[in-house]
Write a structure and sequence with these properties.
Helix content is about 35%, strand content about 20%. By secondary structure, it is α+β, with helices and mostly antiparallel strands. InterPro entries: Creatin/AminoP/Spt16_N, Creatinase/aminopeptidase-like, Creatinase_N, Pept_M24, Peptidase_M24B, Peptidase_M24B_aminopep-P_CS.
């Protein structure tokens, strides 16, 4: 049904999503804090500091982007958690904050890093783990203010907390991905010869809003030879008959991301487009079938490359073939640890969520990426979205 409708008709047909997943509760956030403390104890860490951004929202529900002023959670191993915040932002903070966590506020002429030092001293903390996403300048200021405190990265602690999704998180991720798949399906219906990629991007932006998400987080629309570049070229492609179409986009729901890619042809696919699409489908399915608890992340990347090599593609990152990793973790950030790539020996566990996108690039001709996501159960993998059926049925119609 590619190209069977138009922009206005498809946008008007979108309805607000009715089957909404419940929001994350404060009880679950306290469980996350408890989990972080267990990991801190295992690593010999007395306190954890989490800066503004996705991890702060993960642990507290505070939706605060990183700015030049320090806004952070200080979590002692023993003692009450504290939110460090500029004093003039106290009203904004409390307006959206429901957890019973003490706020410590600093005036514009004061050092928030000295305030962190005081909180750590009150709790007799001698070893601090710092959020890996905290800017270098803030880390430097902390190290100067905490001369007698051992500082290390909190990457392992944060990643271990966030990589295993709860049933509530999986439900939100499911909603986000289904929303984007519906938007993708409708975007394919508005295509017509002469259409610019930017027009499709505009439709996707409007459609993600109309369906009830918190908005489009990114949008990649490529036609023809541009599809041979994984993230496109700095140009506004114009659609022509026989072009490969690659649309990669996602939205945000309650802080959680979708990220779905479909590749298909506008018009009739030729023999080579059909052949490569089928290989891509085979590789994606092989990765899914290999995903089970205990398997190493890097093994799934190897599985995809083995399929491609059997068809004369590659080997390794050589083109024609797969130029990047096979997949990434996903949650409150679009790309997060662990990764389906050689060298990542993280064992798969129930609750982990991944993209599955072993793209095939044919230089100077086209590229095909099928991207769906799955989560691990105790017995194997479960799709969030049904993969494309064929190059002519990318949405099962």
């Amino acid at each position: 049904m590619i190209g069977c409708s138009d922009y206005a008709t498809e946008l008007a047909a979108i309805r607000l999503w009715e089957d909404k997943a419940p929001a994350i509760t404060d009880d679950e956030r306290w469980q996350r804090i408890g989990n972080a403390r267990k990991l801190m104890a295992e690593e010999g860490v007395d306190a954890l500091i989490i800066g503004a951004g996705t991890s702060l929202r993960y642990f507290t529900g505070i939706r605060w982007g990183m700015i030049e002023r320090l806004v952070a959670l200080v979590l002692p191993l023993q003692g009450e958690p504290v939110i460090i915040c500029p004093a003039f932002e106290e009203g904004s903070l409390t307006a959206e904050f429901s957890m019973d966590i003490r706020g410590c506020y600093w005036q514009e002429h004061e050092s928030p890093y000295a305030l962190v030092a005081r909180v750590l001293a009150e709790n007799q903390c001698a070893a601090l783990a710092i959020d890996p996403s905290l800017p270098f300048g803030m880390v430097h200021e902390l190290s100067c203010a905490l001369a007698n405190v051992k500082i290390s990265s909190a990457s392992n602690i944060v990643d271990q907390c966030r990589r295993i999704k709860s049933p509530a998180e999986i439900a939100i991720l499911q909603q986000a991905k289904l929303m984007t798949l519906e938007v993708q399906r409708r975007a394919s219906r508005i295509l017509k010869a002469g259409m610019k990629a930017s027009e499709v991007c505009s439709f996707i932006t409007e459609a993600h809003k109309a369906i009830g998400s918190d908005g489009t987080t990114f949008c990649i629309v490529q036609f023809g030879t541009s599809t041979a570049f994984p993230h496109g070229l700095p140009q506004d492609d114009v659609l022509a008959e026989g072009d490969m179409v690659l649309v990669d986009t996602g939205c945000l729901v309650e802080g959680y991301n979708s990220d779905i890619t479909r590749s298909y042809v506008f018009g009739e696919p030729d023999a080579e487009q059909q052949r490569i699409w089928n290989i891509e489908k085979e590789a994606q399915l092989a990765v899914f079938n290999a995903a089970r608890p205990g398997a190493l992340c890097e093994v799934l990347d190897h599985v995809a490359r083995t399929i491609l090599e059997q068809h004369g593609l590659g080997p390794d990152y050589q083109l024609p073939g797969l130029p990047h990793r096979t997949g990434h973790g996903i949650g409150m950030t679009i790309h997060e640890a662990p990764y389906l790539v050689r060298g990542d020996k993280t064992p798969l566990q129930a609750g982990m969520c991944f993209s599955n996108e072993p793209m095939i690039v044919i230089p100077d001709r086209f590229g095909i990426r099928l991207e769906d996501h799955f989560y691990l159960t105790k017995t194997g993998a479960q799709w969030f979205t049904e993969p494309a059926l064929s190059i002519t049925q990318p949405f099962g119609e």
